[in-house]
Amino acid sequence: MNTDGFSIETTPGGARKVGSFAALLPQGTRVFVTHLPDGALDDIVRTAARLAGAGMAPVPHIGARHLESRAVLERHLDALRAVGVREALLVGGDRGRPLGPFPEAGDLIGPAARRFERLYFAGHPEEDRDAVLLARIDRTVAAGARAAAVSQFVFEAEAVLAWEERMARLGNKAPIRVGLPGVATPAALLKYARACGVGRSLRGLWRDARLLRMAGHWTPAGLIAGLREAPPSVEGLHFFPFGGFAETAAYLAEARQAPSERRWNQS
């Protein structure tokens, strides 16, 4: 698998640091916009509008537990639709107690499916959540929208390939985007892995002797190579730019260049 058709993630705050998305990314790139617990809904809408205006395909996260009421949800979905959003990722949200009547991502399927063409849901290769994910996919299709999964980031290609095979055995027909860390320092990778509960595949980092002696940046080249034989259900790669949006975008741009023109090691 190569990096063609990749997607990438940003926060509203991170997006404000990007001078030009069009200068960093191919036209039509899906850019997912996170919904942080203390984030303002208007910031997500403004970021989505900016991305659409730059020729990107904004995919906002919609965090169920961060929404105070059904009226707030409806207004937010309408505002996103009005600025050009056609796809969204429904998540529970990183909050212990919901602010309103929506404790989990599945509660948003009906209203979101009426407005958006495709709904994404988070997949967790290292956890036993497949039945819940498949139920959400089925409900989305029944509601008239297309469905897809985006996996939590992993550090071993084997982990995500085993998960895709497991999902296929359970009857999954929805496409999957595989989450990978972007360019980052080893310290940043470990920090986010611990914060996000990525456990077993951390051994993939420690197996990589480069990490133990690296003073600069880790790149996802090894993971991308390990996914070369990914099944057709894997429609693309999704990057979490823990080391900076511009750095990961530059790395992905160089993956499409001749080897002599590259700054990063792509092998």
Descriptive overview:
- There is one protein chain.
- It contains 12 helices and 8 strands.
- It has 267 residues and is α/β, with parallel strands linked by helices.
- The protein has a single domain, classed as TIM Barrel, CATH 3.20.20.
- It has an 8-stranded parallel beta barrel with strand order 1-2-3-4-5-6-7-8.
- Strand 3, helix 4 and strand 4 form a beta-alpha-beta unit.
- The protein starts with 6 loop residues before the first strand and ends in a 13-residue tail after the last helix.
- The model has no long low-confidence stretch (mean pLDDT 88).
Biggest sheet statistics: 8 strands, parallel, barrel
Number of helices, where a helix is a run of at least 4 consecutive DSSP H or I residues = 12
Question: What is the 3D shape?
Answer: globular
Poorly predicted regions are: none
* Computed Rg: 18 Å
Sequence of strands across the biggest β-sheet: 1-2-3-4-5-6-7-8
Task: Output the helix-strand order.
Answer: EHHEHEHEHEHEHEHHHHEH
Record the SSE blueprint:
Layout (H helix, E strand, L loop, with lengths): L6 E4 L1 H5 L4 H4 L5 E4 L7 H13 L3 E7 L6 H13 L4 E5 L17 H5 L4 E6 L6 H13 L3 E6 L5 H13 L6 E6 L4 H11 L5 H6 L1 H5 L7 H6 L7 E7 L4 H10 L13
Parallel strand pairs: 1-2, 1-8, 2-3, 3-4, 4-5, 5-6, 6-7, 7-8
